[in-house]
Amino acid sequence: MPVAVAENLFVGSGSVTRLLAGRSRIDGKLVFPFPSGGAEENYDLVELAPEGTLWSYTIQRFRPKSPFNGDGSEFDFKPYGVGYVELPGQLIVETRIVADDLTKLRIGEAMRITTEAYRTDDAGEAVLTYAFRPAREGEKA
Amino acid sequence: MTDIVIVGAGIHPFGRTDGRTGLEQGVFAIREALKDAGLEWKDMQFAFGGSSAAGAADAVLPRLGLTGIPFINVNNGCATGGSALLSGYAAIKSGDVDLGIVVGFDKHPRGAFNADPEASGLPRWYGETGMMLTTQFFANKITRYMALHGISQKTLGLVAEKAFSNAVHTPHAWRRSPVDLETILNAPMISDPLTKYMFCSPAEGGAALILASERKARELGLTGPRVRGAAIRTRPVGSFEVFAPALEIERGKSAVELASAATWEMAGVGPADVDVAQLQDTESGAEIMHMAENGFCRDGEQERLIADGETRLGGRIPVNTDGGCLACGEPIGASGLRQVYENVQQLRDRANGRQVPDARIAYSQVYGAPGLSGCVVLER
Q: Mean pLDDT score of chain B, rounded to an integer?
């Protein structure tokens, strides 16, 4: 069974994924990721919208140093997208981006949440993180 | 209130110096600054210094003399040098001391910086999934800026081309050979839209400045540029800074805008009065965006200004006359003081081959993680 990269980060997988944020009990403002280490007691866990618009993006072309622990080595590294998606009325969240062609992304285009198996753990299980994909591509397996 | 004068400036060449530690490069820069002023280490009443990856700055003391002076270590990311300078400035303004030194040095391994999430108050997954890279932040920021304000890929290339062209005349620069625009634009992408020539590299180097009150300088028979304004500011709500897993939808000002506004107010001059500027160019796009954030133009005007050569030597407002971070590389602790060192050379007519004629007002600005900026205005 695939495992999530962290707790309280998202629920579900694929098209039914929802990012988790904190809503302040004091001023009602949203924070992402959900706070931890003692700060969480002032926040309610809430789900963020699954759709938004592309705010900005780039393509990571080289394998990052540690603490990055994605699959592969610097010789078979596969570039991945990293950008920001604006969730209307909520937040602009940073995210990995999956797309058939990362060079065809356009600021302002509709994006939808998904999950991405970015590495395999010691037990051989896929580790999932959240990602966004252009809505025009539809949901893929 | 007394004015503060920079009576000496020294630098250890930036780049790669095998067989010499960061600390030794700092000691070298201090000795150069002392020689420049004709002073000795025992004349120094205080020191502020910092390095990010080359140890405690006060470890220079045994090499220079255990004179018992207060030496305060500063660690403020890419603004470490600027913070040391501001601290020295405030120390002299307080009236307790009237002559001292600020120093910054560093030595980083090759390749992009790797960041520790916990050290920045961020969760582990943020680094593990590959989203905690300064290069990604700069690329995201310029991608959106280009879309909103009509900046072209070619303009990114022109900024890098200028940097290497200026560095040909800079003894302390690292990459001193010109690189043509085609090569820059067609080089491998590091983080789109930025190619490898558009990013500065972590490097090594050291820089030191000797500060004196105007009265003390006069007493010693020394002259130098006056510090007219200096300020550091951290990120406000609504800014877009490095290592940000989420942003507020309502956008606000940047740390750079706050720091530059405070500096202009303190200096009593504005961008139109500046003859030469050193702006943080971690990558080509940063120089372009910082031109607007520091008030040198409106958003989008850079496209025409850069095409017309206005930021080149001989242009209306030459920017990064020594090649900036792009050609000098970035030793974090020394980078901000390198900018001020270059402005001191410009204001003393010592910038052979890259001199801005009759430069009177010089400006410098650093930017660093996790979102702070420091600016300095010097006057001949």
A: 95
